Amino acid sequence: MLTVSIIGMGPGNLLQQTQEAVEAIAKSDYLIGDKRILKELAFPDKTQHTATHVPQIMELMKEFLTEGRAEVAVAVLVSGDVGFYSLAKSLLRALETENITDLKNVRLICGIGSLQYFSSKIKTAWDDAAICSLHGREGNIVGNVLNNRKVFVLTGGDQNPAAICRKLSDFGLAEVKVSIGENLSYPNERIVTGTAQDFTKESFASLSVMMIENPAPLERAYITHGLPDEWFIRGDVPMTKQEVRAVSLSKLRLRQSDITYDIGAGTGSVSLEMALQQTHGFVYAIEKNEQAVALIHRNKEQFGAKNLIIITNTAPEGIAELPPPDRVFIGGSGGNLKEILDTVYAKNNDAGIVINAITLETLNEAMAYYRDRTAYEVELVQVTVARSRKLADYHLLMGQNPVFVLSAWPAGQNATGTATQTETK
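User: That's the sequence. What structure does it adopt?
Assistant: Structure tokens below.
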């Protein structure tokens, strides 16, 4: 019979082990872990194997079972806590799938994770912190910091502390408080605190941790879309009106971490609403009119939408170098609708598209584009709005220009509502 103890060893220093972990190691026949953990152990008599990947560990366990012993006790030593971005998750899944032992013979022993350890060192609570891992994965750290007072970050690879601080500074978050820890619990442990700007050129170990504190996260008084027109600074630039904007945004089916384009952004009313809803994504507003661009900047400042990026250019030229989009809203094409759509689909042929057409010519051009493209399903809605105007003791309804809202999705997505996000996050 094989019994397995997956043991969280804490941040590294053996002083951080729990008594339960020590006792489980003492009762085990074999120890498996990385070289750094094994060399620190006070159990030199135990048979030790260096392995850090699940397939390696599984093969070792199978070998142990061939030795003919009636009972085999294995301890797999993992860093930190077994429930916090740990190897334990995938190892437990492999043990269940390969069925080399009953799961009732598998025990998880928790340890002190880097989050708890680091928080105690900088004298702060961690129960109110958002958690973001950039170790071997993508994540929108700007979105996390914009929307939370406190964010704990695991760094790794190119996403090192200095690179993260540079990104925060580029998005107007240079003054947020940042604490950085490296080599936690070891003699060469280093913990520093300052602003993001302070550490943009500092060198830290790739595998570090950060606690980022933003005293003024974005406050959203309303979570619905279709904000009142009068909330936006308008000038003489055309704007997608509230009711049409609400319908168009609903057709886009936005997700929080999407990359979206607003082409022909005008005053930026659609861009801003997308940016406010996509708390972990980025919105690119493409607009060629300089007066309109100035209005978008003013509205961006007014709403505090730091994840809105303004591109002063025509389309498709202005989107050529942008990351692939998940969603695209086209409010104005400047006569380049086909070229714009070709460029978008070259970047991501699964992108969701919503087009507002005021003229029949634009509508006909859009319908003609999708006529032979059977890989996409098109839905067309006409939005006709009448607003009341008071005249003496009466209210009269004043009709607005009708707008056609065309949405195009890869076949099947309208029915299922599912979509695959691009791998740019």
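The two ends are 44 Å apart (CA to CA).
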